[in-house]
Design goal:
The protein has 13 helices and twelve strands. The protein is of the alpha/beta class. It has two domains: about 160 residues, Response regulator (Rossmann fold, 3-Layer(aba) Sandwich), CATH 3.40.50; about 140 residues, Rossmann fold, CATH 3.40.50. The strands form two sheets. Strands 7-6-8-9-10-11-12 form a seven-stranded mixed sheet, sandwiched between helices. Strands 2-1-3-4-5 form a five-stranded parallel sheet, sandwiched between helices. Helix 7 links the parallel strand 6 and strand 7.
Amino acid sequence: MIGRREFITLLGGAAAAWPIAARAQQSAGGLPRIGAIWITHSENTEAFFKGMREAGYVDGQNTQFEIRFHGNSLDKLDELARELVALKCAVIFASNPYAIRAVMKATSTIPIVGVDLESDPVAAGLVQSVARPGGNFTGFFLDIPELGGKQIELLIEAVPTVSRLAVLWDATIGTVQFQATEVAPRPASIVLHSIPIRRGEEINLAFEQATRENDHAMVVLSSPLLYLNRSQIANAALNARLPAISLFNLFPKVGGLMAYGPDLPAIFSRAAGYVARIVAGANPAELPIQRPTKFELVINLKTAKAIGLEVPPTLLARADEVIE
């Protein structure tokens, strides 16, 4: 767990627009606290706090950030959530579905803003409707479980000879995603091989299984666990010479072959805008659930060369970013 003092360099910035937070300061009797629970530090955290600064909120000047990181320790989430509630935060930001559920269990009154790439917010009972959430929670959701089908399509384009395709997914949270990927249209000649995991310790075993089964490529579905271990997955795929695609645009930047998914830093920056609006007095019950509108294709050409793959020029031409 990292406290706000250890995170101060990230939160620094230009002078803030004091009037924005005046109402929150008066109601709280001092600087409003903004709580946040993260998996780990990444460019998503940087985008969030950059968004907060752009909205006029600077730590120690007109707000006080309370930052908590949980890493792989999901069993500590309830404790972290209760801690932020006890601090009487003006709003709490939860960066993943596990954190969202922990904070919602801890409070029904403090406003919560969350980012969840794995759930349907209405089906999961988090909100009453997308347009009007209706409670103390709102946020940003991907809610496109069939995105795995698009990833299969791109992977087949990159590796036309593929006939066995592994799907690495998180069995604790990714059932809907996997089922949508399993039924997504694909050539009849391609066999999907399901590789569910529940812990980071199972990742190397998953790749050993893919190698034994003679899988030719891999789709990596999304979850906080898979995001946190993206570097390990990229390294394991490289060592196995296995072309892999992920939802996370950070995946190719740490050595994975490809990514197709939303611009995650942009989502977290927009989430900061919601947090800022709530601190200024907006009601989360009236802030609509948001979904990403922009999707990016990122290809790591250096990794392609390392595993002996020649990416078709037509696919490279469509990429939003090519890492060489």
